[in-house]
Amino acid sequence: MALAGVRVIELAGLAPAPFCGMILADFGAKVIRVDRTKVGVSLDRQARGKRSVAINLKSAAGVALLRKLCLQSDVVLEPYRRGVMEKLGLGPNELLKENPRLIYARLTGYGQTGSYAAAAGHDINYLAMSGLLSRLGRSGEEPYAPLNLLADFAGGGLTCAMGILLALLERTRSGKGQVIDASMVEGAAYTGSFVWKSQGTGLWGRPRGQNLLDSGAPFYDTYRTSDGRHMAVGALEPQFYAQLLHGLELAEADLPAQMSVSDWPELRRVFTERFASKTQAEWSEVFDGTDACVTPVLSFDDVSSHPHNRDRGSFLRDRDGQESPRPAPLLCRTPARPCLAPDPAVGEHTVQVLQEYGFTAAEIEQMLAAGVVERPGVASKL
Ligand SMILES: C[C@H](CCC[C@@H](C)[C@H]1CC[C@H]2[C@@H]3[C@H](O)C[C@@H]4C[C@H](O)CC[C@]4(C)[C@H]3C[C@H](O)[C@]12C)C(=O)SCCNC(=O)CCNC(=O)[C@H](O)C(C)(C)COP(=O)(O)OP(=O)(O)OC[C@H]1O[C@@H](n2cnc3c(N)ncnc32)[C@H](O)[C@@H]1OP(=O)(O)O
């Protein structure tokens, strides 16, 4: 796999850092998640392919242990509020001094500097601060955050993974590690570069929810079908719009012009009525195989069995029977090989990992006995 041989230490976090760690693990990195001791269960639902070591970082021995793990690792990924790692004596100055090849990734909401740097926050706050949230939502309604996808995952976990890959690539030339300051505000804003860079094109000239791509246009929206499901319509270009009308059995001559914004409410009314006359399956039959840019809005229950997704194997089922998306993108020679085994329990691999990193049985036993590290069951004999 592409990241075979890369060793990653991921300090346990809420949502974005676990995603970043899972991406790296999916593509072959050896990812060790550092959990707290005495927590029992992990909230990490993106633990695929990771191992868990439980370390009490509020003890000097725990801090010393983590430093040793970082000495033999390529990447450390930390998801805490600014200053937390420094307070523990695990800041980048210390760790990079000991291991100059280390890539030290800091995934936070507001970044390492600026007046908000140390403030608590979540996806919706970062999205708000990126400017993007002000553009999301339907006309006449309040701004709407689309799950916690944009800041936590696109602007956060994924962007941070890109930073790590860039730093790994650069290290092949310089031999040096570096610090990555991944701010979810900036990652989300960067993801939205198109919206900034297309200002002045007329695409965004109207209020939120009244533009071409923000649910303002009737030919770029979703419609309810007779069985209470939905179809997604993305018929922007005239040649595709013509196929939409053909599928809906509407004559272009009987309708207002596609780009006549003042007529959009009337067009929407006509489309709404038409879509409500057939089931989702019936509309799919009408539009499949055409260029009308009309697709069913698939539920989680339906998505993997849709013929297109099934043909590509876009979703996988792990050994617990749980379905999730297969890692993307596909690399033809060195594709991801996601682990299908159950997620690790907190501390499940404490002993195994410490042995791998060169600790003796007696040292491990001593750390277990002192509560510096933990494993499930807390049996203290190796
Ligand atoms: C919208 C998303 C978040 C979605 C997550 C939700 C799915 C879950 C959030 C809450 C969960 C529920 C809740 O836990 C209650 C139930 C629990 C039950 O078990 C399950 C059901 C629950 C209902 C549960 C259900 C769900 O799981 C939840 C609803 C996001 O936006 S995520 C993005 C968040 N932002 C960031 O990641 C940016 C960077 N980080 C931060 O800004 C802060 O970390 C953050 C997130 C604001 C948290 O701040 P906090 O004050 O808690 O921590 P920090 O200041 O960072 O300091 C960390 C301290 O921990 C110490 N520490 C770390 N590791 C160890 C260790 N191994 N040993 C000992 N100590 C450790 C560290 O030293 C710090 O200590 P100090 O405070 O003393 O410095």
UniProtKB/TrEMBL annotation:
<feature type="region of interest" description="Disordered">
    <location>
        <begin position="303"/>
        <end position="329"/>
    </location>
</feature>
<dbReference type="InterPro" id="IPR044855">
    <property type="entry name" value="CoA-Trfase_III_dom3_sf"/>
</dbReference>
<dbReference type="GO" id="GO:0005739">
    <property type="term" value="C:mitochondrion"/>
</dbReference>
<comment type="similarity">
    <text>Belongs to the CoA-transferase III family.</text>
</comment>
<dbReference type="InterPro" id="IPR050509">
    <property type="entry name" value="CoA-transferase_III"/>
</dbReference>
<protein>
    <recommendedName>
        <fullName>Alpha-methylacyl-CoA racemase</fullName>
    </recommendedName>
</protein>
<feature type="compositionally biased region" description="Basic and acidic residues">
    <location>
        <begin position="303"/>
        <end position="323"/>
    </location>
</feature>
<keyword id="KW-0413">Isomerase</keyword>
<dbReference type="InterPro" id="IPR003673">
    <property type="entry name" value="CoA-Trfase_fam_III"/>
</dbReference>
<dbReference type="GO" id="GO:0008206">
    <property type="term" value="P:bile acid metabolic process"/>
</dbReference>
<dbReference type="InterPro" id="IPR023606">
    <property type="entry name" value="CoA-Trfase_III_dom_1_sf"/>
</dbReference>
<dbReference type="GO" id="GO:0008111">
    <property type="term" value="F:alpha-methylacyl-CoA racemase activity"/>
</dbReference>
<dbReference type="Pfam" id="PF02515">
    <property type="entry name" value="CoA_transf_3"/>
</dbReference>
